[in-house]
Amino acid sequence: MAAELRYVALAGPTASGKTAAALALARRRPVEIVSVDSALVYRGMDIGTAKPTAAEQAEVRHHLIDIRDPLDSYSAAAFVADATRLIGEIAARGRLPLLVGGTMLYFKALFDGIDAMPSADPAVRALIEAEAAAHGWPAMHERLAAVDPASAARLAPNDSQRLQRALEVWHTSGRPLSSFHADNATRSARGLPPAAFVSLEPTERSWLHERIAQRFDDMLAAGLVAEVEALRARGDLSPDLPSMRCVGYRQTWEALDAGEPLPSLRERGIAATRQLAKRQITWLRSMPQRQVVAAEAADATAHVVERLMAVA
Q1: Of 44, 99, 36, nearest to 68 (Cα)?
Q2: How far apart are CA 34 and CA 280, in angstroms?
């Protein structure tokens, strides 16, 4: 790795303590934080994303936060381009780039490179959405299974966002999405591995579940419902947008549509966040280069700082 592209990375499931560890490192070394989070990019989505506070952002410079309107999308390819540029700029300022977050797809795209898949085609996407509205996403899942069984096997029948993309790739290229993942010759970007990759992972799932419940309660108390009401009041957003499919926002939007009581929203929001954490941990376990720190350990933050300082 070129010296100007040297950086360290810290990952972990939601509510595992990444922010506290990142700030602790920032107090020991001159760093700038690059967010690796597909929700933090959106403006006006502060409470439900557990966005770093104004004080935390004042303490250490953060990047890739509040860079998109919720009406817009943000892709792994855009992240890789932005992160690569920022790593170089931060290093040129004599500071250490510290990448922190829980969107494992972004980490993997940066570490390993990006598959040169077809870009989005609005006309094809509209056709797929119309068919899904008529027949349902489980039926579209069956259709995907006929042309791309590998992708269908790893996607849930109601995972509309990913089913839509897989079907779009098939329609526009005539190739299954899985073939792009398997074909290393189609890599359009060289991977950029970190100098160190530390992962905060709980050894006791119950510990993480308690923290997730407390965090969601804190979000509700801080005004999550009012935040989503304000987003709905804009009039140009819909629950099908990537921003509104973020965990917490999707459940709150649906609760407002259905007039669902707060206790029911709380239960569904916590359950969805637990599922997100489970997916994040599964991603992490497929990344053997990571150095694992037990998230619930009393000295977890100190261990993270120690491992990152060893190469910084």
Answers
A1: 44
A2: 19
